[in-house]
């Protein structure tokens, strides 16, 4: 891959942090493509730098913005490989449609993530559990005062060489006051607005010594939905259970992957409404043996404690089934296991 | 007021559009103040221009952003006067708190809107119904990959010399599918995310020949809330009625003002839950004689038609009481009536 001298120098001079952590640095490379006058322009690889935005652009006033998260792995493979980037491209297209933005063409999306990955090769961490985290984004660029969308948009991909989101089992706090997204809202797409409202509860939860809030459904407030930045799964009666997609939950790609992998591990997989009170009782009785978080950033991360106000529930088992799922997932992602479902995309092709 | 030569030239060279319309142009002046390392820096008046933002700033990824809308009027007064800017400062403080952003100090907010107004004097339209529309905004400036807020923020004020949002009575379409904000979400503050999800329904509504959707509550989906960019009021049994603030409705400053002005007009004012089906029946029976939109941008705007799917309901009376409220409001805003409540702030003081 031929890079500009500026870009090559930026990459050569870049130092990865130690410890690596999750999202501690932004890599020196970004990809940008503009949608102008109804057409996508050619994308360009460039040095990571601030972008110029109208201060009242729809992305900055009306949150006409969406993002994605995906990873390139380079552990056992000859070339860095992307995990299911086609699913991210599809989800970004759904997010864009919901927010009245143009679809980023599948090929532009894939070319962009591959270009950033290839340029970043000298900086991709290669230990198991580490990867190049990529964050594609789409924003409305035009100023609007009436409530209306933009006509012009920017697609940008930035990246962060990273380890997993959490380094240990996490504790989760049931969020009884705030809700993440309305029925008929934007909860099932990756709109920035879903996250803006989640920062406060996430921060409160961390201040109380927990790692993530567990959101409940916004109508009955009793069905579990997801954590702030990842989905949740439970092992109940020996089956992998994840909350059914109800229109307010983000359909996570790792979540869908685990539901598929359950079959390989000989475990039934269920998507169903999960009542928080039943779940707490099932943990007490042992019917629910294990809980874990899952997501691109989190991978598969065991949950040790589920707290609901003063009721602190400890999981009887931590990281037994979660470890099996994580091993199966990372085995494919890192090139140790056969990729029988065509999930891995070679970034050099 | 001493302006830089660049700013003076930009103002001298600026042409207002004809017709003026609402929000068709951004004035050549903006005000910017940064919050860095836990402290607000001095604000600066500068030429309106794009700002530099990290592409993955929390404002652009997680919609950690909020805005306000207020107006400076210069019709009968000696100096342009701002309408209730203290209320906008308070609401922005509430928005900021909900989104984990620092409060813009009251004095910084007022100094900023006054400075922009004074600099824009040569460009403030002076006919009744016209004004300088000001849009203060607050955004998170730091890049974050985990879900977390920024530590550094920017407060910016841009402006648009404008007429009213609509130039005629509007038709409104009940939105039965999408919802604007969740209970426990951000609907009662001016967060960008509330608006991102509203663009689609607003666009669909316009495509069908209507002007604004009427949002229903996100739980029972039967109580009216607001229009996409303004509140709604009804005249029922001779009283001014507006939907009760329930946590998902934006507490509009014009709405609150009209509820106060009703007393001056000898009309009872009620804030109460309003069921959409009852409202449609009340329009048919004549109990509800009139409907109108209200907001800083819309001022008081009559509604001629309320449509719910195939049921098209015409208001028996259009712009009778609305015209009285509008005259009372504009009388104060434009300096014809006494400002007995201290609502007007002289921008030169």
Automatic annotation (TrEMBL), chains A, B:
This is Branched-chain-amino-acid aminotransferase. Pathway: Amino-acid biosynthesis; L-isoleucine biosynthesis; L-isoleucine from 2-oxobutanoate: step 4/4; Amino-acid biosynthesis; L-valine biosynthesis; L-valine from pyruvate: step 4/4; Amino-acid biosynthesis; L-leucine biosynthesis; L-leucine from 3-methyl-2-oxobutanoate: step 4/4. Pfam families: Aminotran_4 (PF01063). PANTHER family: AMINO ACID AMINOTRANSFERASE (PTHR42825), BRANCHED-CHAIN-AMINO-ACID AMINOTRANSFERASE 3, CHLOROPLASTIC-RELATED (PTHR42825:SF2). Its EC number is 2.6.1.42. Its cofactor is pyridoxal 5'-phosphate. It comes from Oceanococcus atlanticus. Gene3D superfamilies: 3.30.470.10, D-amino Acid Aminotransferase, subunit A, domain 2 (3.20.10.10).
């Amino acid at each position: 891959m031929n890079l500009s001298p500026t870009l090559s120098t930026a990459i050569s001079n870049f130092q990865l942090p130690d410890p690596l952590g999750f999202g501690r640095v932004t890599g020196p490379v970004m990809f940008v493509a503009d949608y102008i006058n109804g057409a996508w322009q050619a994308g360009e690889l460039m040095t990571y730098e601030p972008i110029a935005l109208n201060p009242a652009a729809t992305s900055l006033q009306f949150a006409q913005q969406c993002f994605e998260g995906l990873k390139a792995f380079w552990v056992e493979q000859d070339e860095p490989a992307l995990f299911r980037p086609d699913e991210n491209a599809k989800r970004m297209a759904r997010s864009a449609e919901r927010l009245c933005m143009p679809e980023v063409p599948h090929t532009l999306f894939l070319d962009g993530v591959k270009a950033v990955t290839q340029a970043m090769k000298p900086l991709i961490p290669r230990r198991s559990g580490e990867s190049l985290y990529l964050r594609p984004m789409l924003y409305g660029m035009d100023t609007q005062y009436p409530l209306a969308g933009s006509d012009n948009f920017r697609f940008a991909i930035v990246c962060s060489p990273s380890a997993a989101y959490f380094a240990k089992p996490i504790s989760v706090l049931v969020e009884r006051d705030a809700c993440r997204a309305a029925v008929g809202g934007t909860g099932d797409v990756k709109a920035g607005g879903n996250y803006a409202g989640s920062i406060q509860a996430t921060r409160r939860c961390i201040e109380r010594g927990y790692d993530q809030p567990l959101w409940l459904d916004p109508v009955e407030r009793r069905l579990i939905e997801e954590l702030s930045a990842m989905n949740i799964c439970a092992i109940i009666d020996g089956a992998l259970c994840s909350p059914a997609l109800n229109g307010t939950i983000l359909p996570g790609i790792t979540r869908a992957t685990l539901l598929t992998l359950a079959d390989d591990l000989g475990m039934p997989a269920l998507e169903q409404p999960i009542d928080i009170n039943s779940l707490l009782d099932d943990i007490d009785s042992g019917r629910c043996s294990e809980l874990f978080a899952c997501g691109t950033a989190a991978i598969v991360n065991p949950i040790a404690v589920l707290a609901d106000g003063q009721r602190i529930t400890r999981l009887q088992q931590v990281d037994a089934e979660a470890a099996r799922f994580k091993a199966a997932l990372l085995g494919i992602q890192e090139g140790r296991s056969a990729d029988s479902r065509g999930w891995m995309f070679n970034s050099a092709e």
